[in-house]
Amino acid sequence: MATPSNQGQGQYKDKAKDMAHSAVDKASSAAHTATEKAGDYASRTADKAGDFASKAVDSAKDLASRVGDKASDLASQAGQRAEDAAASVGGGMRSLAGQVREHSPNSGVLGSAGDRVAEGLEGAGRYLEDKGLAGMSDDLAGVIKRNPIPAVLIGIGIGYLIACSTRS
Hints:
By secondary structure, this protein is an all-alpha fold. The chain has helices at 4-103, 108-146, 148-167.
């Protein structure tokens, strides 16, 4: 026979079991909700990180493109200035040829030497004005292709002279 105190203890045990099950269910539900929220947060964070990385890559590409364009513009300007300087030097050489002709004697050995120097200066000045540095480099490449052995020997000689002059 069950005594009233045994019945009360049974009721408490049942309530305790129910409360424990309820607590386990709530904890399980809270853990599931936390897991879902953590997954959502991680997904949003990964999306934001991906967007940030994409923007950083785009910015770097844009910057590299602008730097390349600027370098190209500067190189083009430098090349144009060099060509202009070559044409200016050519004009100066032609002007110097005229002065050599004016100040050299009209006849004799000095006169013929003055004419030859003036002709050389005038021809070189015309060449620089007409062809510029680009034409000069093309012509030099052609001479080297037609005469490779003398070009190599000249290069070795120039290298030797430079080495000797820097040694002392």
